[in-house]
Each structure stands twice: as C-alpha cells, then as structure tokens.
Write a structure and sequence with these properties.
single chain, about 140 residues, alpha+beta, eight-stranded antiparallel beta sheet, two-stranded antiparallel sheet, about 45% strand, globular
C-alpha cells in the first residue's frame, strides 16, 4: 500500500469515528419524549404527542428546536442556562399550567446538571396575571 492510499484510509477512518461519536452524543440529547397534552412554546400551540428536542445549531445552546416524531410539527425558541444540584436521570420538560393551558418552561437533558430555561412569552405573562400558576 502506498503512502497516499494509507493516508486516505487513515483520514477516512478518523472521519467515520468522529461521525459516530457525534451521532451518539446527539441521540442522547434528542431522545423522544411523550407530552400528553397540547402546549404552547415559541408562540405556537403544539398538539400532544411524541417530540424530540435539541439545539438548533451544534455550536450554540441558545436556540432550540422541538420537533414532533413525524417531523410535521416544530417550534424554534430561545433559552438561557439553568442549573440543578443533581445530575438528571432522564430528559424532562417542565411546564407552567394556567387553567387548561400549558407553557413549556424548562428542558433538562439526561446525564447533566444544567438545563435550558425558556423566556416567558408575552401570552404567558398575560395569562399569569389572571390566574394561578401550577408547575
């Protein structure tokens, strides 16, 4: 085997290894979660169902994408960092509930002690003024 073929083979192997690591890390973060009720996020009302959540870009955690399992329903939204005292055992969503309306408030991903908190939208602030919040 000549040096050029060996170098190409080495680069290809390295590239495939890096891709496998990236896909593995992404699959943990984008685990499917069932939300059993309609809810509001990013100014949109989404139907109950199975969703994945992940950063919209690999190099930034500020904008996230929530997408239905079939890919037909999605929402983009901005977040800020929030911390917990313990490592999360599973991916979970935290909602604020006012009457029969649910607003996505926080996202926690498995294996870490940091999560993402959504900015309270204007609609939620208006609804909150007139009702009692439940989490």
């Amino acid at each position: 085997m000549n040096k050029q073929a060996f170098g190409t083979l080495t680069m290809l192997t390295l590239l495939l290894t890096m891709t496998a690591i990236s896909v593995s890390a992404q699959s943990e973060r984008s685990k499917i979660t069932n939300i059993p009720f309609d809810f509001i996020v990013g100014g949109k009302t989404l139907p109950a169902g199975d969703y994945t959540v992940e950063p919209n870009r690999r190099d930034s955690l500020n904008v996230w994408l929530l997408q239905s399992r079939d890919g037909n329903v999605n929402a983009l939204f901005t977040t800020g960092s929030v911390r917990a005292s313990e490592t999360q055992e599973k991916t979970k969503f935290v909602f604020h509930k006012y009457g029969d309306q649910y607003f996505l408030s926080q996202i926690w991903t498995i294996g870490g002690n940091s999560g993402r908190e959504l900015t309270m939208p204007r609609l939620e602030r208006e609804v909150a003024k007139n009702s009692t919040r439940q989490t």
